[in-house]
Amino acid sequence: MQVVAIDCIGEMCPIPIIKAEKQLQNLQTGDELHIKTDHSCTMQAVVNHFQRKMGYPSSSEEIDYGIWNIKIRKQVKK
């Protein structure tokens, strides 16, 4: 399993979603994409987008005050 991280500090939606979609195209099934963001609305939008639209398991964790790490695991679409 490969883990790829992208830094989206200071970026508002839809930029993190666009960056994540591009990066996920290069990943294999089972790989994880980690996104760092400092906007709670971006964190919620990214997790919802990839769970609902793509069906990828996604979660977020506040790793510091106001900083979130979002994890998206690429899997085969159902």
TrEMBL record:
Domain UPF0033 stretches: 6-30
Gene3D superfamilies named in the record: TusA-like domain
Domain of life: Bacteria
Name the UniProt record assigns to this protein: UPF0033 domain-containing protein
Originating species: Desulfuribacillus alkaliarsenatis
CDD domains according to UniProt: SirA_YedF_YeeD
Similarity section: Belongs to the sulfur carrier protein TusA family.
One Pfam family, short name: TusA
InterPro entries linked to this entry: TusA-like, TusA-like_sf
